[in-house]
Amino acid sequence: MSDGNIIFDDVSAVLLDVTDRTRKWIEQSRGCDIQEALGRMNQMAESGIQAANLYEMERAAGDLAEAAAMAACVAIGFKTLLRNTPPAEKMH
Fold first, then answer.
1. What one-character-per-residue DSSP string does 3-72 give?
2. What is the reported pTM?
3. Run of H or E including 87
4. CA 30, 36, 41: angle at the middle one, nearest 5?
5. Tens digit of pLDDT per residue, the chain (92 long)?
6. Which candidate, 48, 43, 37, places its Cα nearest to that of 14?
């Protein structure tokens, strides 16, 4: 199925890939180290952009999926921090 240039099967495949990478990263690191995930996110985003510039689209897609997984780990880390922060500290 597609809508213009978007093929929804590709969207589903990418989202499943990102979800799987996020789960694996969290399992391997036993949580989410925000600084480490941010560093990896930046590294993989740059690598994906370089690959795209070289027309290596499969590698670019994989690297950018990894960057998205790292962004998800960071978001999960922030949600966890927020949930574990006492209400009095949230107001500051």
1. ETTEEHHHHHHHHHHHHHHHHHHHHHHTS--HHHHHHHHHHHHHHHHHHHHTT-HHHHHHHHHHHHHHHH
2. 0.78
3. helix 87-90
4. 110
5. 445 677 888 889 899 999 998 888 888 877 777 888 899 899 999 999 999 999 999 999 999 999 999 999 888 888 888 888 887 765 55
6. 48
